[in-house]
Amino acid sequence: MEKNHMSGMLDHLKTRISQSGAITVADYMFECLTNPEHGYYVHNEPFGIFGDFVTAPEISQVFGELMGLWAVHQWHAMGKPKLFNLIELGPGRGTLMSDALRVANGLPEFIAGLNLHLVETSHRLCNIQKQALAQFKPTWHNDISSLPDGPTIVIANEFFDALPIHQLEYTGNGWLERRVAVIHGQLAFTLWPLQFPIDAHVSLTSRQPSVGDIFEISPESCKIISELASRFNSQSGYGLFIDYGHSRSGYGDTLQAVKAHAYADVLMNPGDSDLTAHVDFGALSKAATTAGAIAYGVKLQSQFLKLLGINERTDALSAQATPDQLVQLNSGRDRLIMDDQMGSLFKVLAIVDPDLPPPSGF
Questions:
Q1: 349/27 Cα distance (integer angstroms)
Q2: Which of 29, 79, 301, 309 has an alpha carbon within 20 to 30 A of 264's alpha carbon?
Q3: What is the pLDDT of residue 6?
Q4: Nearest C-alpha neighbor of 211 from the set 248, 176, 167
Q5: Rounded CA gap, 120 and 129, in Å?
Q6: Of 144, 173, 148, 146, nearest in space to 159 by CA
């Protein structure tokens, strides 16, 4: 069955390309990840030791707990609204939100006032989230367009890295777009004339491009940030976004495939690997401020988690831990904050209603 869905995705892509020509990298990512018949999220369990990668909430319960404390602080900063929306984009297995709300449970007013909303496109993951978060009666959304109005706190961990990107390559004749074609019966990259202007995007970089430079843009990511920023500007809100990526826009090919905790060929076995790209936090910050919000950061994950108290929380849990739990707590903390692990690769951006005070950790 596994083999069938992999060959099914390859056949589907070859048919689409033969009918309409080479497809953008963005379309390729979208098909591979979300195709309802053959997509990666339909057939695979991405998270955890037995999946393809491990995210911060799965590494240490302290990560989710700190997100819960952060949300409570922001709720206080908003004047403790009687009703408010707590939204998570891409909730995975529901681990982060489960840990966050376990900590927030000590504050009955906060729990009583929250309306939990989860933005998730995978039906399989929705079912897992239902089990993890049933007591909080979440509402699910395919995208942010159907989210309700009102005071809002948004949290997104490793959400933007999976959104589709376009890749542009600088040549002797200027910028061309990288696309996926079928060459000699195999998927391969090719170059294609640009279908949209990119001057505004490339102007964010700090140097002139050289031949062979790759520039990546994610219009969908910028659109989501813009819409959230506009919402905060008119209705009050805080947003927290944690992901791996770069603080400033720059050149580089960051598209990658991950299978069983190892890197794989991006064009091999489509639909069987997770496809991601580094997040351009410079572009997200620009989109947020253009839409009227204030952007805070970009901070290293290590700095942010230390300011929120990761060391103190880990020490407090360690005092009552078994020897095995102690090893797990300390190794989890180190993985999240050490520079040679996730501490400096992962960045943190907050966007805020201009009338609200700065967010915790910034």
A1: 27
A2: 301
A3: 58
A4: 176
A5: 10
A6: 144
Note the pLDDT tens digit of each residue in 22-64: 999 999 999 999 898 888 887 766 555 445 568 999 999 999 9
Q: What is the largest CA-CA distance in the chain?
A: 64
Rounded Cα distance, 214 and 156, in Å: 27
Q: What is the mean pLDDT of residues 338-348?
A: 95
* 51/72 Cα distance (integer angstroms): 32
The CATH code of the domain at 56-162+222-352 is 3.40.50.150
248-306: pLDDT as tens digits: 999 999 999 988 768 889 999 899 888 999 999 999 999 999 999 999 989 999 999 99
User: Counting Cβ atoms within 10 Å, is residue 83 exposed (0-12), middle (13-18) or buried (19+)?
Assistant: exposed
The token duo for 108 is 């009955």
| Percent of the chain scoring above 90 in pLDDT | 82
Which residues, 6+ apart, have CB-to-CB distance to 133 below 8 Å?
94, 97, 98, 101, 116, 118
pTM listed for this prediction: 0.93
Instruction: Report the alpha-carbon distance of residue 23 to residue 30 in Å, rounded.
Output: 11
3-state DSSP of 178-191: EEEEEECCEEEEEE
- pLDDT tens per residue, range 159-185: 999 999 999 999 988 999 999 999 999
Q: How far apart are CA 98 and CA 179, in angstroms?
A: 40
pLDDT in tens, 67-94: 999 999 999 999 999 999 999 999 999 9
DSSP characters for 99-130? HHHHHHTT-HHHHHHEEEEEE---HHHHHHHH
Domain borders along the chain are 2-41+164-216, 56-162+222-352
Rounded Cα distance between 131 and 191, Å, is 46
- Tokens describing residue 96: 């982060």
